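Please fill in the sequence for the structure shown.

STRUCTURE ENCODING:
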């Protein structure tokens, strides 16, 4: 992977991150921006127009908003939750599986 690649991750061993999003979602943009700024690679699943998947996500997380972010199997919540974890230092621990 070249140093110029936008997909480069600073944490090759970190847990898999999945961000569920939809179109026109400023909170999704903010969440993805923070992950990228911290060097964490993530998969994005856009739920636009996929009502069945959206219902699955609501049932699984109990949350009706996007983004919803998973670190491994753990649903950590949305954009504000991600920023809070980053602020209090817990994000790094979760990414390492601690
Ligand atoms: N506090 C939430 C706010 C997320 C939020 O309000 N997301 C909007 C889209 S940007 C949303 O899902 N609205 C309900 C909807 O579109 O059905 C977070 O930090 O993730």
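FILLED IN BY: designer on duty
SEQUENCE:
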């Amino acid at each position: 992977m070249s140093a110029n690649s936008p997909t480069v991750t600073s944490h090759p061993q970190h847990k898999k991150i999945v961000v569920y999003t939809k179109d026109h979602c400023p909170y999704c943009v903010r969440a993805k921006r923070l992950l990228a700024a911290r060097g964490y690679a993530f998969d994005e699943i856009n739920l636009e127009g996929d009502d069945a998947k959206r219902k699955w996500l609501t049932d699984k997380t109990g949350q009706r908003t996007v983004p919803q972010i998973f670190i491994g199997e753990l649903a950590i919540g949305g954009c504000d939750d991600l920023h809070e974890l980053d602020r209090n230092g817990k994000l790094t621990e979760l990414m390492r599986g601690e």
